[in-house]
UniProtKB/TrEMBL annotation:
InterPro entries for this protein: F420H2_bilvrd_red/Heme_oxyg (IPR052019), Pyridox_Oxase_N (IPR011576), Split_barrel_FMN-bd (IPR012349)
GO MF terms, alphabetically ordered: coenzyme F420 binding; oxidoreductase activity, acting on the CH-CH group of donors
Keywords: Oxidoreductase
A family per Pfam: PNPOx_N
Protein name: Pyridoxamine 5'-phosphate oxidase-related FMN-binding protein
Organism of derivation: Actinoplanes friuliensis DSM 7358
Superkingdom to which the source organism belongs: Bacteria
Length: 166
């Protein structure tokens, strides 16, 4: 992925502030363990849930049980939003990732992702033919979200920056 187009929003930023550099956002996506996934149910109601993620090759990956509400939502309406950051008002950076969730079924990629989940989060997944298992008979579908747009909200100073991808 080429570097995103950076659009700093002065109207929602403190005077004299500048954009959060993409390298800092990329680092936050790499290091953050928990995100909030927002999806839409079949009847149009929102659904939000926390889950761990892995940022690899500019794609945000997560696993969801094959019977979970978020999985049902994504299989029907794959557009979603993932957010991470801090609950502090005066420090840190919050990030919003908008994109479309796609199932990851390539076995080699699943093996690579399972190793990252283990090293980053100490989670053990059994890699199946096209999904993860937990060793107890439950299946986890793996999804990847390639960002279409990312927003960052700096909080010291307050800033808003949009990163657009081709």
């Amino acid at each position: 992925m080429t570097a995103p187009i950076v659009e700093f929003n002065e109207g929602f930023s403190e005077p004299g502030a500048g954009p959060v550099p993409w390298a800092d956002v990329d680092d936050l996506l790499t290091k953050s363990e928990m995100f909030w996934l927002s999806t839409v149910r079949g009847d149009g109601r929102p659904h939000v849930t926390p889950l761990p993620t892995v940022w690899l090759d500019n794609i945000l990956h997560f696993c969801a049980g094959d019977q979970e509400q978020k999985t049902k939502n994504l299989l029907g309406r794959p557009a979603c939003v993932l957010t991470t950051g801090t609950n502090d008002l005066h420090s840190g950076v919050d990030v919003v990732v908008e994109g479309v969730a796609e199932r990851i079924t390539d076995h080699a990629r699943l093996v690579e992702l399972a190793a990252l989940w283990k090293s980053k989060l100490d989670w053990d997944y059994v890699v199946g033919e096209d999904a993860f298992g937990d060793g107890a008979g439950r299946t986890g579908l793996v999804f990847g979200v390639r960002p279409r747009k990312v927003l960052s909200f700096g909080k010291n100073p307050y800033t808003q920056t949009r990163y657009r991808f081709a």
